[in-house]
Give the backbone structure.
Amino acid sequence: MQRPIPWLWITVIGVLLLAPGFTARLFVDVLEGVTLLLVFGPLVLAGAGFLAWQWFKRRLVTCPACGTPSIGASVCPACGGALAAPSSTSGRSVDQPARDAVIDVQVSEVSDDR
């Protein structure tokens, strides 16, 4: 058994869209707002999630003794070892420029006994 086509609702929506006035403008504006929300909503949420992940990652400290990551603790919750605060330089010395650094090279002979 087939359902009848809802000609009444199709006609009402057609009149609202074609008739100039407040109702047609309101219908189009609501439809436009819903479309913008569906298109830009996920993009805004993805951007906020990315920024939150970067904030979280900057504050994450890994224990040098056991490797357990934690946030905002001065003592490791797993092993009790002391945690150093996260540094923005990642262990590099900022005082000395790279061109003045000394690299020690040791030469040793490698014999190929086959």
Observations:
- Strands lie at 60-62, 69-71.
